[in-house]
Amino acid sequence: MNSIMKGLPNLETEHFYLRKINTDDIPAIFDYGSNPNVSKQVSWETHQTVADTRVFVDMIVEGYAQGTKALWGMELKSTGKLVGTIDFVTIQERHRKAEIGYVLSEDCCGKGYMTEAARRIIAFGFEELQLERIQARCFVDNEGSARVMEKVGMSYEGTMRSAMFAKGKFRDLKMYAIVSEDYLKCRNNNIKRCE
Predict the structure, then answer these.
(1) Which residues touch 80 (CB under 8 Å, ≥6 apart)?
(2) Mean pLDDT over all residues of the chain?
(3) Tens of pLDDT, residues 3-34
(4) What SS3 state is found at 185?
């Protein structure tokens, strides 16, 4: 991943500064990471202590240094508080393919924030990294995440049965994706949501 990223740039949207996370963000990340309503729809376990959050942040910071992590903290401009993260979970350079993942604090849900951030990351992926495909997966019962994927122009490609072991059981995952041709068509026609 390090050759395709060459350093993680700061990005900006209407409501967010998208930036690297650091140890100063540990309290904010613990705030939403310890909320079971937030963690129930992601693969990682609910943070039980601040030490859990510190392990996560240390892993990401080390990944920045090695060029193996492409995770942005979502700093809300109006408050200066970090309220979530969005990242390229994986980037496959040979196939010019990436997968995005994201999490948002409960009090920020339902405001269009994650759609806004995802649009920016997708634009970066296609326009700066020259990706051909960007995909995302979610648990089948995660309707909020599925709506985000649809709003950013991704198409539902099917359900992957027993595709991930998380929360003590095998989980089915919905797969969504957008390819460069569809992204460029939307951008050139100034369409926010592709159908």
Answers:
(1) none
(2) 92
(3) 666 689 999 999 999 999 999 999 999 999 99
(4) helix
Distance CA 195, CA 193 (A): 6
* For residues 149-176, average pLDDT: 95
Q: Enumerate the β-bridge partners of residue 98.
A: 91, 134
Q: What is the mean pLDDT of residues 55-84?
A: 95
Q: Cα separation of 127 and 107, whole Å?
A: 31
Burial class (CB in 10 A: 0-12, 13-18, 19+), 130: exposed
pTM: 0.91
> Whole-angstrom distance between the N-terminal and C-terminal Cα of the chain?
31
Task: Select from 108, 94, 97, 86 the least CA-distant residue to 18.
Answer: 86
Structure-token pair, residue 84: 């979530």
Name residue, tokens 């903290």.
73
**Encoded amino acid at 155, one letter:** S
7-15, long-range: CB < 8 A, 24+ apart: 7/67, 8/64, 8/69, 8/70, 8/71, 8/72, 9/124, 9/128, 11/72, 11/120, 11/121, 11/124, 12/120, 13/116, 13/117, 13/119, 13/120, 14/116, 15/76, 15/77, 15/78, 15/113, 15/116
Q: Beta partners for 173?
A: 139, 160
